[in-house]
Fold each of these.
Amino acid sequence: MMKLRLFTPGPTMVSPDVLLEMAQPLDHHRTSGFKEMFKECTELLGYVYQTKCQPLILTGSGSAAMEGAILGCCKPDAKTLVCHAGKFAERWVKILKRFKLPHVEYKLDYGHGFKAEGVADMLKKNPDVKAVIFVHSETSTCALSEAQGIAKVCKDHGALCLVDGITSIGTIPFKMDEWGIDVAVTGSQKALMLPPGLAFAAVSDRAWQVIESHDSPSFYNDFKAYKKSQADSDVPWTPNNQLVRGLRFTLRQIKAEGIENVWKRSASLAKGTRAAAKALGLTIYAADPADSVTGINIPAGVEDDKWRKSMRSKYGIHVAAGQGELKGKMIRLNHMGYVDDVDTVGAIAAMEWTLAEQGYKFEMGAGVSAFMKAVKG
Amino acid sequence: MMKLRLFTPGPTMVSPDVLLEMAQPLDHHRTSGFKEMFKECTELLGYVYQTKCQPLILTGSGSAAMEGAILGCCKPDAKTLVCHAGKFAERWVKILKRFKLPHVEYKLDYGHGFKAEGVADMLKKNPDVKAVIFVHSETSTCALSEAQGIAKVCKDHGALCLVDGITSIGTIPFKMDEWGIDVAVTGSQKALMLPPGLAFAAVSDRAWQVIESHDSPSFYNDFKAYKKSQADSDVPWTPNNQLVRGLRFTLRQIKAEGIENVWKRSASLAKGTRAAAKALGLTIYAADPADSVTGINIPAGVEDDKWRKSMRSKYGIHVAAGQGELKGKMIRLNHMGYVDDVDTVGAIAAMEWTLAEQGYKFEMGAGVSAFMKAVKG
């Protein structure tokens, strides 16, 4: 008997309820029933994004929405400021490069989040910037950027503010309209508690003006085509209606729990996990840690592969390795979506048992105790 | 109690077995288990395509693979011949236009399939054509093109042969390698008996040479990125691993039935459906009917909407309407995937009962009897 618990920051755990909801007989997507379901999803997504606009629903990975956002908002005759300090932000740079779009890079060391001040400085130096891209919660380093402050700086400058919210929206406080964010993208397999396969993009009126002012070199991920169809609760290409059905289910759950309570739950899990790490003599990778996922440095004398493999094979706890150059240096534990205190106590216990196997010195139970104290009340 | 039977040519019916397979606990896609599953899928897809190459698996609708195929194979300095006589072929034209790629159009009246001779004539008139695109089975008109003959003509001319096999592969005879096809795309929600959300593209060595000779203006649907990852049984963007699990299940079913038997089943259902239509005094829309889906003209005096809605609400039989300018002129019945003689007898019975409601004159049971005789033995 092996019970698997996915502690990876995407895909996250999917509830059996949702899996069974998606195992219901499949209907066609050109029906009034689907249109109603789709409309409810866009409205509830608006709630999760805290926006009045109805987010687009794309059939694809998060990268599909990233491509669509860049091709729509970053025009060939305008300059984009792209902030990067991790693998996922680097993907945005790659897309800009692939399409030969003018851009200036603002790079920080891995583990750091971007602050409003730094972005303001860059904009002062590059007054011709028309769009700013940053990752709210960088999944690879587990670091948080100051979304609200950066959005304000962008607005003051008159630049569009594009946010990769793939591991932030639905997990940590995110208020699209109040903060003045122009485009925010996410995917189904994170805070939205579904398998991968749907991507989402919310777009402000200001961003639509730019998107609609030109024909972007895109067909499949063309936001204009999605907007046109969505007016009729429809999509331009055959949608993954099985996932849309699951989406309605999980969005209703989020609405019932209340988005503020979801944010509190992730924050508490992150706080407890950081406390556990500290109690075990472990350190956190990020200088500006996000509450969606925690990156813990691998201590001297502990082998990464052996540690993670033992956690999975013996205890069913699947944590993520470091990505790219961070491989071997950290493990990452997810706090998004369908995960609670009891799951996380188990993950920390598994961390402890498997650390002990490698001769790491600590007081067994110290991590779990610290977690329990931190999350209580 | 309402039992729904999807007779739409995509999404087609999904078996409860497959839905439950996809309701199994979700695992991560960066595991050896997923790699094995993925590898098995690409190998079995090769069997369905009748090719030695291992088809790419994209997370997206069929249109994602269409975009990738065009951006890879139709270079800005080369001319493409695009054959069109229906809504889906027109999508290929739209993609060429959107990316301002040089092309010449070969248009036939709706309902007709393309023949080798006609394509050869067009190539003679346009010797500089480097790629030919056609739809094998045009879902909107239910017409079949001569894939084998056209592929030969392309090869003789030295042009790449790109086939939209979205409603042909896995349903009607399709032999990628033997026929010399260069790129063939399909989607998960047709003959592969899954919900929508995955797209597939098989690519010949000849086509890879072209794709690898330039940097296509594509990021998400970049075949080169997929090829690079696939060498390690991986994908460039987070895959819909729930659908990949379902895919392994349905591909194993196809392998067990034998692809030739699957082809025979569709052909028999189509033959029986055409016989039923004839016995009811109805006519077939396509001059060159395909065996994947049958388009039946709506007879004088019968209202399209009323007919289809009555079939669905009273008998759970959901047939497709005509698309675009064919709306109101025809209904379409699917023969792809998880559909058998008994299902189709039921669909024809529902057609008859609901035709009678509108005062259409015929001998009740004549359609069903004709179907039963046609498919027997």
Amino acid sequence: MNDTSDNHGTLQISRRKLLGTVGAAGATGLVVGAAAGAGGYAAFGGSGSGDGAALATVGAARVPFRGAHQAGILQPLQACGHVLAFDLAPGAGRKEAAALMRRWSAAAERLMAGEPVGDGDGGVARDAGPCSLTVTFGFGASFFDRTGLAPRRPRQLDPLPAFSADQLDPKRSNGDLWVQIGADDALVAFHALRTLQKEAGGAAAVRWQMNGFNRSPGATAHPMTTRNLMGQVDGTGNPKPTDPGFDGHIFVAPGGEQPWMTGGSYAVVRRIRMLLDDWDKLSLKQQEGVIGRRKADGAPLTGGTETTEPDLDKLGPDGSPVIAADAHARISAPEQNGGATMLRRPFSFHDGIGPDGAPDAGLLFICWQADPLKGFVPVQRKLDRGDALSDFIRHEASGLFAVPGGPAEGEYVGQRLLEA
Amino acid sequence: MNDTSDNHGTLQISRRKLLGTVGAAGATGLVVGAAAGAGGYAAFGGSGSGDGAALATVGAARVPFRGAHQAGILQPLQACGHVLAFDLAPGAGRKEAAALMRRWSAAAERLMAGEPVGDGDGGVARDAGPCSLTVTFGFGASFFDRTGLAPRRPRQLDPLPAFSADQLDPKRSNGDLWVQIGADDALVAFHALRTLQKEAGGAAAVRWQMNGFNRSPGATAHPMTTRNLMGQVDGTGNPKPTDPGFDGHIFVAPGGEQPWMTGGSYAVVRRIRMLLDDWDKLSLKQQEGVIGRRKADGAPLTGGTETTEPDLDKLGPDGSPVIAADAHARISAPEQNGGATMLRRPFSFHDGIGPDGAPDAGLLFICWQADPLKGFVPVQRKLDRGDALSDFIRHEASGLFAVPGGPAEGEYVGQRLLEA
């Protein structure tokens, strides 16, 4: 178990290892083969055996709902995702919001255990296990005014600065409440989405919704780094839970200005359209120059493997830097941004062909940090000004959400905010 | 091997068995663990071993491009799908269409083997195996006029009759050329889609595109019947390749009016929106009454298991039929439709929330038959008039395509049409 070190070590474990190793439940926060409760959907007996064992494992993999942090931050990328924002209904305030969070938490706990939610459960997830379902809840800045909780609004929710290249659609940005759903099965994810929409009842309505995906479990024997729709290896530079200071960078420490956020994190969500038709016109060499990494294996152009540090000072035969001054890998390197650290955990999206005839596809960029002014903002400021990649992407929507810590036994998510 | 009997027996094999059984390649038409060619993406060594073996199998599963029938008809449902239609460019005729089908076939063969397509391969599928990718090509009625091949247009491509409940969008219906893509990994499917769009070059442009999904491999230990977004078990009534007359119902026999269609099939494609908000207002009992089957296991309301024949004559204590006169299971039963037989192989779709605030979700219905007038049409005529389910669905788009037989060695798909 040298690749896990604490109770949120799943990030370091390749999906392949994770799924191949049934015994690591305690260390990874992932419960595999646990019998579902009475009335549960899962039809798997214990840890499984015979020819369906490894496959049943995909379905049976369960992420606990309760813990120091909410699920959906440190778990491996899932194959299917939904992110959506809700606005509270006119007239709904703190009381209705508290009741909603209580309902949503109860539903999320059952969904993540692979159990039906109430008599009206639609049954879409039936026959499957939890499939690593995670449900994550957050609050947008507007939530606090709507609920009379302005004094408890963290300064970290101050609006993100405007970036010069932004082309944001306000209708698909921000929102009072944010929900992130991830699962390794599309029907399980859809079922969770529909269930939470129904549980919203008259208290809140969907403001925007986006669907995304990552690689399927078992599609590759490689580690969990994925590829984005430009074909680049993605996630290489992510901090690891074993890195010094990881917790301090990603999670809100006890003793902060807003005690209810202890153990929580801030999510920046950006719908980043990729201009794939333009991108595909570049040669492989040009694409690698824009990124500063090799496409095949993600290694920096200065050599080594995916995990080798880029040598930003290295010069080529012509005396110019091997990794160009405007290469994405240089601009986004932590050492170029005062050590700014965020945990990126994206989904790709593909909504068909846009009105312009080009693919409406790209990255549902989601990053996590204890303070967006120290994580996302300094990096994006630099990318906005000088990133060669910016000719090939377009930020179309943006959200910033306070994601409270995980619920303790008997608590619902956000209870420390809403009932303190 | 008692669950396979011929060279297209994969349909009968549960996905679980299929993935758990590495040795059945010859009988199933699925090549597992085959080393990819030089330059191929797949990094798996042989049939795999150790903790990643079963998982590598998901990635490494390969469907042959060549054979008596095109791929994507008899293979198990894949987790991700794209269906799209192209129209030939103005001025493009038979010559350009032949060159396009040659390019597309060459690309599809490489994609399905998990190999990069040319120097400009975007690399999105890299690191994964073929993931059971299938690419299937068809021709719409308009193709034959555009290419001067009207005498070779099969009568089976005559327009489908109008159904009273249809609300078809012509912009998302029909088209000169049809492409169906399925794979067990979203990036592999997306890569195939983009590659084929690029290979279309100036010869054809996308007319419409739809994205769909089914259950992920390993999400359930159950057989390959899936659930649709209404939560119903789907696919129970499908004919099996071992059924008497299966080939005659599904594939065009030799000696027909259009020899180039020998071994081919006709695909009816319908975008069926589900009015899920209305559906979810019904009680479980009401939903089961509409369908005539139990939701939990798909068994008919007259008893038994999923595969038990419905007893359409059985009366309840009140003297009325247990399976109602307008129940979907009754109306669609082959014995109620002169033995009409089609092979349904759908994807679910979910394109977010529509302008009406309701989920834009439902079924990408795809069915296969040797003659749509003997397969789809008689069943849909009855459903259109008397199906209780029709209050909860809306046919929004429709296409009918002639899908030629699989290419022999050295051939491209459609060569017998375009070069005869």
Amino acid sequence: MDHKTYVQNTQNLTDKLLDKYIPSDQSEPALLHEAMRYSVMAGGKRLRPVLAKATYDYCGGDEASAVSSIHKAMAALEMVHTYSLIHDDLPCMDDDDLRRGIPTCHKKFGVAVATLAGDALHVIAFQLMAETGSSQVVLELAQAVGTSGMLGGQMADIEAEGKVVSAEEVRNIHIKKTGALIRGAVRIGALLAETPGDTLKRLTHYGEMIGLAFQIIDDILDIEGDQKLLGKSPGSDSKNRKATYPGVIGVEAARKEANRLIDEALSVFNSEDDSALQYLARYIGQREH
Amino acid sequence: MDHKTYVQNTQNLTDKLLDKYIPSDQSEPALLHEAMRYSVMAGGKRLRPVLAKATYDYCGGDEASAVSSIHKAMAALEMVHTYSLIHDDLPCMDDDDLRRGIPTCHKKFGVAVATLAGDALHVIAFQLMAETGSSQVVLELAQAVGTSGMLGGQMADIEAEGKVVSAEEVRNIHIKKTGALIRGAVRIGALLAETPGDTLKRLTHYGEMIGLAFQIIDDILDIEGDQKLLGKSPGSDSKNRKATYPGVIGVEAARKEANRLIDEALSVFNSEDDSALQYLARYIGQREH
């Protein structure tokens, strides 16, 4: 199977897992389950679950136990990501109307239901991680999402709005806000495959590099992008006076930095490696939405 | 030590644990940590951690390993409870100005920071539960908080606002919204003490009964209570047209039902038992704030 097919299959698998693990909108509380499904099933690249699975497979993770370990972690990672988007889109935060090409959760269901839908995805994510039986991956998720990770980045992002920030400060916001969960996805895949420490260390570096590159390219696309491909309004960062890489160092230098990070991510692999992880790093470097 | 002193000591221990496990407001993101501390350290009865510890001790939980197990669970339970209060108080939900006698988190820090502070307490709670090394208590917390528990109750509560509801519907809301986490606190204390199944079953019933009684009395106090003792505006339930027990069956019948539930909670103990759990059940039955 070529890498492109592998990634598509894994995206499809993720969709099936999400459908399996989010309670039915026929069961109570039906409206809450409907709101959770609405945001999660709206699509997206499923990057974090795909990275987790590709890492698991790269590390020779056991195929027989995948259903009770990496599959649950994949669904959990996408749920946490979606919860963060739902809360980020709220009127008190970025106040966005569009996400993944459709109205944001609060536009469709109201702010109260959207707040609870985010909270509920957050809980199920931890539940699924715990169901793998590994307390270590629960801790890994908590670290990625907590105040030294994603939530710390969201907070710093809010505090930086409208202020003059340095490239170093933007870098720190991006590493936490976007990078921590991407790094966490890679590490969780490696931990569930019981990877030895030296490989875990290499892959952690890979995760950190692609995580930062991903957000820099997101910033560039926000300036240059096409609404139809992006699924959200381009220019929303500058509307919200967000701290961005191209805003601080310019588009050209930002693109160069992203390329450098992708190269560094690729450098952790051995010369004989030809894995989906390398394909994904190149994909992130070249993506247009 | 008499039961009253035991409860006071355990409340004080809870305060120390919360101070220990919430990151310092001197560390970044400082404002987020400050908001988390503001809401958590505002006081409160610490009922859930006290119940968890009293259950752990009733079940003969190991004193030596308490620091790495029940102590972490105690802090986690209070953090989850506080997160639910912060999100419940938001303008999109109950829109309350006062909590525990001081301005609500969003009144003090704004809606964005309050939303993130709730999210962050939610994460640390799961982190601490995972640090006990028991995936089982992580699952127990997730079940108590998820859409078949607390969040399901919050959702049903919103949907019932302004509608005519039956006593059965109010009961179902209360069992989920308040009861599930109180039940979970008792079960987590028992599980960490490695209690055998029959005792766990008895204590689960105790937790269910006091959880429902607690919310019924909360409803009564909301009608009859004194703002100074309650720490929040009395009458806010009727202002928000909430589904309440006294609203449906009257104050007198509600009081009688609470007494019946407390008696049933007490019935799970053996005749020779004289534990803090029994004291707490009686305390819940008689509390005035």
